[in-house]
Write a structure and sequence with these properties.
It is a single chain. The chain has 308 residues and is of the alpha+beta class. The protein has two domains: 116 residues, 3-Layer(aba) Sandwich (Rossmann fold); 178 residues, Sandwich (Tumour Suppressor Smad4), CATH 2.60.200.40. The strands form two sheets. Strands 1, 2, 3, 4, 5, 6, 7, 8, 9, 12, 13, 14 and 15 form a 13-stranded mixed β-sheet that branches. It has a two-stranded antiparallel ribbon with strand order 10-11. Strand 5 and strand 6 form a beta hairpin. The structure holds adenosine-5'-triphosphate. Adenosine-5'-triphosphate binds next to helix 1 and helix 3. It comes from Lacrimispora celerecrescens. InterPro entries: ATP-NAD_kinase_N, Diacylglycerol/lipid_kinase, Diacylglycerol_kinase_cat_dom, Lipid_Phosphate_FormReg, NAD/diacylglycerol_kinase_sf, YegS/DAGK_C. Keywords: ATP-binding, Kinase, Lipid biosynthesis, Lipid metabolism, Nucleotide-binding, Phospholipid biosynthesis, Phospholipid metabolism, Transferase. GO terms for molecular function: ATP binding; kinase activity. Its cofactor is Mg(2+).
């Protein structure tokens, strides 16, 4: 049995069209399946939890939507039984699909899932935050604090988002909001603590992004060396006294090139604690975790079996 969790609203409604095409193929191939269509944020998380709690024998769960939908599914999974995950991208950013080099054609993706040749045991990350009660949120692709998260927050609440997505220029949305946030961005003093031992201080941190996969924000390759099978987080810190110097850094990341600017530093670790002197926006896979001063992130190695 295949369980599909579909966000019909991803990419301004493209998810619904993609799902209609997939359903035709599924019906024609007489595959046994059940579909769960989300109606609001949080539904994908709930469906994933309900499908996997109670240690069922084995389930194949397939997400149809964007990175936000994948994030919700991952966050809802109960890893007690045998779970196999498949993904059919239908979002705006599609950073997971970009990293896994999944076919752009959803029907080809579906056929790969129905006749799987390769599985990968993938890492995922967990972000923890909060003062009293600590909240934990899993992430598949990346998490971050600062300007990159402010862009995600702004996109989530942007009025023009739907229009841009309908026009299939989701990447342009990220770029335009990115430019706005770059103008507004203020750096913070702060520090990171790698694996509980190595402390590194920063005077002008604009953002810190922590990756399982190399891309975020619809194609910015902030962590070119990220490897989703190595049990490690790849960290990119943007720290510069001169905001203008960030522009070539962002352009290079968008072109898929590693930044050579000395304000950009890269680290690898299993866990990281981040402290910022002032509260900054936080995201996981583009979903908001509000504003925080302190967050902790760790990598859970080779945990999610995925058809690729
Ligand atoms: N039926 C729905 N209506 C409105 N929002 C939804 C619905 N289902 C899920 N959501 C929310 O939509 C948001 C974005 O979804 P998703 O990531 O699938 O698409 P996207 O934003 O177009 O793609 P990407 O994240 O790759 O840019 C998520 O925050 C999710 O919680």
């Amino acid at each position: 049995m295949y369980y599909f969790i579909v966000n019909p609203n991803s990419r301004g409604g493209r998810g619904r069209n993609v799902w209609k095409r997939l359903e035709q193929v599924l019906k024609a191939s007489h595959v046994e399946y059940q579909a769960f269509l989300t109606e609001k944020p949080g539904d994908a998380n709930r469906f994933a939890r309900e499908l996997t709690e109670g240690c069922r024998e084995s389930s194949v769960i397939i997400g149809v939507g964007g990175d936000g939908t994948v994030n919700e599914i991952l966050d809802g999974l109960c890893f007690c039984g045998s779970i196999t995950f498949g993904y059919i991208p239908a979002g705006s950013g599609n950073d997971l699909a970009r990293s896994l080099k999944l076919p752009k054609n959803p029907v080809r993706c579906l056929k790969k899932i129905l006749q799987p040749k390769y599985y990968k045991l993938m890492d995922y990350g967990v972000l923890s935050y909060g003062d009293g009660e600590i909240a934990h949120r899993r992430f598949m692709v990346s998490a971050g604090i600062g300007m990159d998260a402010a862009v995600c927050h702004n996109i989530l609440y942007s009025k023009s988002k739907g229009l841009f997505r309908k026009l299939c220029i989701g990447k342009l949305t990220y770029l335009l909001i990115g430019i706005k946030q770059l103008i507004l961005a203020k750096p913070s003093k702060g520090y990171i603590l790698l694996n509980g031992v190595q402390k590194i201080e920063f005077g002008h941190a604009y953002f810190i992004s922590v990756h399982i996969h190399p891309y975020e924000g619809g194609g910015f390759k902030f962590a070119p060396e990220a490897n989703f099978e190595d049990g490690q987080l790849s960290v990119c810190v943007m720290n510069s006294g001169n905001k203008r110097k960030l522009i070539p850094v962002l352009i290079r990341a968008l072109m898929g090139r590693k930044s050579l600017h000395r304000g950009v530093r890269f680290y690898t670790c299993e866990e990281i604690m981040i402290h910022m002197d002032r509260p900054m926006a936080v995201h996981v896979d583009g979903e908001s975790c509000f504003c925080q001063n302190d967050v902790q992130l760790r990598c859970i190695g080779k945990k999610l079996r995925m058809i690729v």
